[in-house]
Amino acid sequence: MPDRTSRASFNAVLPLMAAVFAAFLVIGLAMPVLPLHVHDGLGLGTFVVGLVAGSQFASALLTRPWAGSFSDRRGAKRAVATGLVIAAAAGLLYLLSLAPPDPRLAGAVLVAGRLLLGAAESVIITGAVTWGMILAGPASTGRVIAWVGAAMFGAFAAGTPIGAAMYAASGFAAIGIATTVAPLATLLLIVPMRAVPPAGQERPSFVSVLGAVWLPGAGSALSSVGFGAITAFVTLLFAVRGWSHAWLPYTAFAAVFIVARLLLGHLPDRRGGARVALLCLIVEALGLGLIWQADTAPLALLGAALTGLGYSLVYPGLGVEAVSRVPAESRGLAMGAYTAFLDLALGVSGPLLGLVAGAAGLEAAFLCSTVAALAAVPIAFRFLKPRSLDTKEAPHENSHRPRCGTSDDRCARSERGTEAHARA
């Protein structure tokens, strides 16, 4: 960690990161095998592959407002625990999808499980980030977003080779069993952790919060199209071209992503979220372009690693810009609204990229993702000039909060209350 503030914040959030890692491991298990199970096991086309992969993100999108509001009203700890129970129910649907003899019916049940898992993911990650921001203090918004996300993607990276091995040994049933059992076991990590009281102040509406965060959310959404392409199609790209270890490119993406977030997660707080996001978008576009043009496995792996490096700090960078525009008592709702744009991108891009891949080849999905990342560059650039007037240490404490419809005095009282929770 680069300084004392970062070390103290990291120590406060570390137990929560462990719980998030355990909870999201089950999503990582399914990532490399879902496309193969749907395409090869069930005999369904690339559009259905994209639909199954994207349905989780579509569900997360629809449940973000509820997840953010639930976290603010009922407490972040309760939100995380609720999400774990929902995730276990999704695992049961995974298992039920193996029963129907009709592949189309099996695919429908599988989509239902993915929808439920999307709702679980929504409330877990929203509650975890809100919880972490209160535990670490108001000057560590970008750090918390980066670190909790690193735990999540660490679970994805660890889960992909484990999931591939489980699928090869025991089929999709092993994935279903793990998805049912692991979230329930994770509850044991959550129970002893210190809860933080829910915000007691009057909160602005979701519409007003959405109006405050939509522009950084749009930039995050465009940058996430590339993540959707890697999630749904990079394993198929390796399989179709006869390249071994189809799980490796996603693992390379996630490993670089995690290291960048752990080592560089302080940069959005210290150097400005927009500045960091702008540079990372360019790196992400370069990586996706390499995958599009790759004619060898090492070149595609390099592209995946560069994509992970670039994508790693776009979300926390623009997230600092988003959270800075809402009062403290609505941070959960703000994170829900901001992350909803990411879910929208992943939910829509999965099926659309599937259509593109079916018509023009798998590599065309990565060309479209490159264009989307470049389209987010002007959005990040839009925030550069206002950010040049902000301080390095607390970029979220600025004059933008009244956009949510609350008075300056109310925002100040809320901030003092949040700081008191962090010191408790």
What does the model show?
- This protein is mostly helical and 424 residues long.
- The chain has a single domain, classed as MFS general substrate transporter like domains (Growth Hormone, Chain: A), CATH 1.20.1250.20.
- The protein is built from 18 helices and no strands.
- α1 packs antiparallel against α5, α5 runs antiparallel to α6 and α8 packs antiparallel against α15.
- The longest helix is centred in the middle third of the chain and has 35 residues.
- The radius of gyration is 20 Å and the shape is globular.
- The two termini are 23 Å apart.
- The C terminus is likely disordered.
What is the fold's blueprint, element by element?
Layout: H1 4-30, H2 34-41, H3 46-74, H4 76-96, H5 103-136, H6 141-170, H7 172-190, H8 206-240, H9 248-264, H10 267-271, H11 273-293, H12 297-312, H13 314-323, H14 331-360, H15 362-375, H16 377-382, H17 384-387, H18 408-423
Helix pairs in contact: 1-5, 1-6, 1-7, 2-3, 3-4, 3-5, 3-8, 3-14, 4-5, 4-7, 5-6, 5-14, 5-18, 6-7, 6-9, 6-13, 8-12, 8-13, 8-14, 8-15, 9-12, 11-12, 11-13, 11-15, 14-15
